[in-house]
Structures are given as C-alpha cells and as structure tokens.
Amino acid sequence: MVASGDRPVLLTGASGTLGRLLAARLGAFGWVLRLTDIAEFPDPLPPNSTFATADLEDQAAVHALAENCGLILHFGGVSTEQPFEAILGPNLRGSFHVYEAARKQRARVVFASSNHAVGLYERSAVLNHDCNLRPDGFYGLSKAYGEMLGRLYWEKHAVETIMIRIGSVLPEVTNERILSTWLSPNDFVSLIQRCAEAERVGCSVIWGASNNSRSFWAGDARATIGWTPHDSSDSHLDRALGKVTDDPVAERYQGGVFVSVDYSRRDFPPGEMFDAKMLS
Question: Is 252 part of a structural domain of the chain?
Fold first, then answer.
C-alpha cells in the first residue's frame, strides 16, 4: 500500500469540495496527509495532517511538498469551464510540476481527470476507457492534456498513474443527466483507497461513476485495482427522471452545460443527425 509506512500522501486541491471530503475521510483512516491549495484550508486539520498554501505554478513549492511522498492525489487546479488563459497555468503547467515531482520521488499519481475530457460525445454513446478524447471546453481540454501527460510519464519514466474520469460526486442525484454520471461519496472514497492499496496499477483509466444502469460509460481498469462501486443512481430514478434543462446543446451531450459555454456551431456536425433549428 503506497499510503502506508513513513511516506506521506500529498493532496493538491485540498480546500476544494472533493479535497475536503478526501482529507476528512482519509485522515480518519489514519493516512499521513500533506494538504495543499492556493486557498486556505477551511476545516479543522485531520489527525496526522499538515497544510501549506502553495501555487501549483510554483515548481519549487510543489517539489518541496512532494518530497518523500509515495502517493500524490492531484485534485488541484481550476475546476470549472473558464477562458484558456485562466486554465493554462494551474491546470497545464501545474500538472506538469506534479508529474515531475512524482518522477523525482518515484511516487504514484492519482490524477483527477473528468468526464469533460470526453464531454462532446452524445448521450446515446456508451464509451469504453480507450475511446478518443473529445473535450467539451478548455477545462476538459486540460484534463485530456493531464491524461496524456500521465501516459507519457508512465511510458517514458515508469511513473504509475490512475486517471479517474470523475462524473458527479454528490450526496444525491438531482437531475436526469446525473443518473448517468453519479459517483456517491462513499464509492469515491473507496476508489481512492483502492488506488493506494493496489499492488501495481501501471497507467490505468477508471470511470468515476457508481453502479448506475443508465451510465454513459462501460469498460475500464477497475478490476486491475480491485474496485467495485456499491451504490447506484437507480434508487434515485423517481426523483430525477424528467428533470432536464431547456438547453438543447446541454441535453444532447454527455458534458451537459459545460458544452454550452461559448458554443457557436450552427451547421450539421459531420456524420451526425442534428436539428439545427433547435439552436436558432
């Protein structure tokens, strides 16, 4: 287990929603955590944890935080669709700094990728883990870059990495799309545990979703790491079915409302049937 012994675990993005969840739950399990974010950590520190404010664009700071770590949980960076210049530093340059630190420390990386790396697939598609990347914006593009970076560092430097294409980590399913993308908090934490406990992971892609019958996603490497989700959005069907937006672009694509940001296409996409009048 790479999270055991005297090698701490570095968690970037610790002050974000998912970072705070992981810090609390993993700290309660006895993990030795080094927490970092550009924003102050808003909660009481878990046992055996430290926090340091740092910018992912500061390579020296990232390397110092990663010193002697056996596992890096990389959840830092911009987490919403933003202009390219806002994404560039923290998400692209920052991820490079994380992987360089992992190479130096011989640490395993868990990269928080996103469903938005493939968000421009239509909702009728069922995707395997080796599908072509089709990011739905600059945020999704940064996650596709992070996945390619992880592949490079595995194939060239033997840095193990698990890329989790996170769906929607929420306490409850609130709309019809999330019936397909939901990842319960308990399943999310158990996935991170298995990422740490698996003996060998190579370069693996995992769909970050619970056992949802309406999932957009199929095969991945969960058997390799021994992870089985136990929750399902199916128990939320009555609450969520029929809850949709009035945005035809968002409802067409797996990426939802992220696709609609700055969407300007008005013609028929090549090889696809689409009623362009919906956008008029």
Answer: yes
